[in-house]
Specification:
Elements (H helix, E strand, L loop, with lengths): L9 E7 L2 E7 L5 E6 L10 H7 L3 E6 L15 H14 L5 E6 L1 H12 L4 E7 L4 E2 L16 H8 L10 E4 L2 E4 L3 H11 L1 E2 L1 H6 L4 E6 L7 H10 L3 E6 L5 H4 L1 H14 L1
Parallel strand pairs: 3-4, 3-5, 5-6, 6-11, 11-12
Antiparallel strand pairs: 1-2, 2-4, 7-10, 8-9
Helix pairs in contact: 1-9, 2-3
Length: about 260
């Protein structure tokens, strides 16, 4: 049977507190899956996953606050991220969904399940722990604008390899689709001990770790799986961005997990 997924996702938006929340809706008849990216990312980073899942899921990939085409908020609080996710689901008339989150998005996902358990059928958490302590201050040295795209990529140095999707042309030059100061503020709110949220819900969880990750250690991932029921832990030969490094294997794990629900 031919896929009913459109060749291009629909770009849509809703408003919350006078601020735009932009998202991609990949359509299709399958189970709703809300995808939440990490810092420096945006919804279109899940395009490959949506294609791989095909008709089995209707992937909705949010540009989270301060990222991509969504507006800058007054704050980057934990509750703010969670409320944004509930706003998008309500806007679409979705009363329950699988929620997938990478890094920042992973904490947002399990905090959404903790605070609104009826909205979340299952969780897919990619390479983030129940305890978070990271520092994004290195991004403060990135240029605000440059005359050309090539110059921007050059000045981003090694970081350019994972920022190419965030490069934009503005009236005053080339820059990124987020403000590094916002990312640092967001990370400071994200840092902390979140065990209560991780343990608060009892829906099935697929916990995915990159074997070379410096964000989620093997020991911490095993502890997360041991302390919470209904957790399936899988590991792939990748760093922090598993869904980008081994996309086919990542999609196969997600597909298998969804099939087991």
């Amino acid at each position: 049977m031919a896929s009913t997924i459109p060749s291009e996702p629909k770009r849509a938006a809703t408003m919350v507190g006078g601020r735009r929340l932009s998202f991609l809706d990949f359509g299709g008849p399958g189970r709703p899956l809300l995808a939440l990216h990490g810092h420096f990312g945006e919804g279109r980073g899940f395009t490959c996953l949506a294609r791989e899942l095909g008709d089995s899921c209707r992937v909705i990939a949010l540009d989270q606050r301060g990222h991509g085409r969504s507006g800058r908020p007054a704050d980057f609080s934990r509750s703010g991220y969670v409320e944004d996710a509930t706003t998008v689901l309500e806007h679409l008339g979705i009363d329950s969904a699988v929620v997938l989150g990478h890094s920042l998005g992973g904490v947002n996902a399990y905090q959404l399940a903790a605070r609104y358990p009826g909205l979340v059928d299952a969780l897919i958490v990619e390479d983030i722990g129940a305890e978070v302590d990271d520092d994004l201050s290195f991004s403060l040295s990135w240029p605000h604008r440059t005359p050309t795209r090539a110059e921007l990529l050059d000045k981003l140095g090694p970081s350019a390899s994972y920022l190419t999707d965030a490069v934009r042309e503005y009236p005053d030059g080339w820059g990124l689709a987020f403000d590094p100061k916002d990312m640092n503020a967001s990370q400071q709110h994200l840092n902390g001990v979140h065990w209560d949220d991780w343990l608060a819900s009892d829906c099935p969880v697929l916990l995915i770790r990159g074997s070379r990750s410096t964000v989620l250690s093997a020991a911490h991932a095993k502890d997360m799986a041991a302390r919470r029921p209904r957790v399936q832990l899988v590991e792939f030969p990748a760093g922090h961005t598993v869904h980008e490094t081994v996309p086919a294997e990542f999609a196969a794990a997600v597909r298998g997990f969804l099939g087991s629900l």
